[in-house]
Every structure is written in C-alpha cells, then in structure tokens.
Amino acid sequence: MATSILITGASGLVGSRLTELLLQKGYGVAHLGREKKSGNVPSFVWDVKKGTMDAKALEGVDTIIHLAGAGVADKRWTPERKREILESRTKSSDLLYQTLKNKKHSVKTVVSASAIGIYGFGLDNTVVMTEDSKHGGDYLSNVVVEWEREVDQITSLGIRVAKIRIGIVLSEKGGALPEMARTIKLGIGSPLGTGTQLLSWIHLDDLCAIFIKAVEDGSMTGAYNAVTPHAITNREMTKAIAKVLHRPLWAPAVPGFVLKLVVGEMAAIVLNGSKVSSSKIERAGFQFKFTDLESALRDLFEKR
After folding, report:
1. Domain total for the chain?
2. What is the pLDDT of residues 91-111, one digit of tens each?
3. Residue 182 pLDDT more than 90?
4. 3-state SS string over the chain?
5. For labelling alongside 154, which of 106, 207, 214, 293 has CA 20 to 30 A away?
6. What CATH number is attached to the domain comprising 173?
7. 193-220 average pLDDT score
C-alpha cells in the first residue's frame, strides 16, 4: 500500500478533491505543478516546456498520480490552444518518464488520468465502448492516444501503470454541471443539439475513489473506464437538473449550428456522445456510490 503520493495537476477539480480524500485516509501527499503553492501539503515545481523538475519532488514517493493537462473546454480551440492541450499531456508524461528513468527514486506505481474521448464521439447509441474498443479518428481521440502512449513508456521501467479514462465528471464546484445549472436557474436551460446524445458520466467522489483503488490495488494495470453503469441522454441530464433544482424547463433545444458558431470546433464535446462500459472497473471489485443520476445531483446540490 502506498504511503507517500505525488500528484501532478493537483490544483484542478479532481486533484483538489482527491487530495482531501487521500489525506483523510492518512496518506502523505505532495503536489507538483507550475508554481509553488502554500498550503497543508508540500509543493514542488516543474517546467514542462523546459523539461525540468525539482529533484526533491520524488524523495520518499512510492506512487505518482498524474493529472496534469490543460483544460479541454476552458478556451476556444485555436491551433495554438489545441497544441497546448496536446503537449501539456504528452510532454508532462514524457518528463515523468525521463525523470523516473534517469533519477534515483522509489516509485512503484503511476496512476494516470486519461479520457473516454479516446473512443471518439457521435457514435450509435447502441454501440457500447470498452477498453478494448478501437480508437476514434477525431482530434480529442488522437490527443488521448498520444497521451497514453507517453504514459505507457513508464511500464518499461518496471513500474505499474494504471490509466483512468475519465467520463463527464459531475461536481458542483466545476466542470459542465455548474454552467448547466446556472442557465436552468435563469430559466434558459435547454437540451443541446438533438438532445439524444449519450453522456457517460461519473460523480466526482466516485472518480476519486477509482483513483484511490488504482493506488491501493496492485492488480490494476492498463486502462479502466471511469463512468457509471448507466449513460443518459443530454435531454435526460437537463431534465434531471431542472427537477432537482425545482425549476421549470421550457426553452427549446439549442441547435447544433448555433453552438458551432459560438464555440467553434469545441462544440463537438457537447453535441456528440458515446456509451461507455464500466464493466472492467466493476470486475476489479469497485462499487459505485452513485449510479442514479438524480441521487448524484441531489448529493451535489442539496447536501453541501
């Protein structure tokens, strides 16, 4: 069992909550990022573009949780932004590999974030994607393929590697949910595009629990989908949020061409979907706390 964990990209939505939960379980936790942070955990700095990393970051560390990567939906997809999204993942992963290869350390496990975007979007709702499914051919799929390829280098060093392919993360503190809730509260919420696109989702706490299981379970290697067993449509998601927030939902669906005009190529993220299987992580012994969308939303909006 790991005792000291280094987290890259720890300032994000997943890293912040994961840090809280790991500390509650008694783990030693440190952060590695672009800037040194003050707080209740040690903080170290790396410069991915320059390929440098504080040598002290790995001292006493036996597990790395690799979450670093520029937000996919934070900015419009200009050519420069698309390159940043890719290189923030591939170059940071390669820097970890090079450091582990060339520096003395005690790291035995690396658990890396990945994404279900590897399968592509706009798929037939009857097609269920597993970890063995073929990859898509779109931009995001290619990003994830290259990202995982860099992470997989680490296995050549005799280090156990698990890759967590993350679906749509539900949290009241970030991601898509707060924005959807905001428009519904204002009375202008509505399905997007056809509204029939399937969303493979997961509650933030279940996602963090999967990362923790991957840290603790030495038999977990390779890729695992981090999604609940029940994908839902964009329309069902919108209706469920409105129900939990006790708001009417009357606005017509937002046409796909309007979204494309507003956000460009990035509209593909919300206009398309995929049905992704959770069977492998369940076979590994993981039990979801939140499999029903409405109960997950109530937990996020009503209990915190």
Report:
1. 1
2. 999 999 999 999 999 999 999
3. no
4. CCCEEEEECCCCHHHHHHHHHHHHCCCEEEEEECCCCCCCCCEEEEECCCCEECHHHHCCCCEEEECCCCCCCCCCCCHHHHHHHHHHHHHHHHHHHHHHHHCCCCCCEEEEEEEHHHHCCCCCCCCEECCCCCCCCCHHHHHHHHHHHHHHHHHHHCCEEEEEEECEEEECCECHHHHHHHHHHCCCCCCECCCCCEECEEEHHHHHHHHHHHHHCCCCCEEEEECCCCCEEHHHHHHHHHHHHCCCCCCCCECHHHHHHHHHHHHHHHHCCCEECCHHHHHCCCCCCCCCHHHHHHHHHHCC
5. 207
6. 3.40.50.720
7. 94
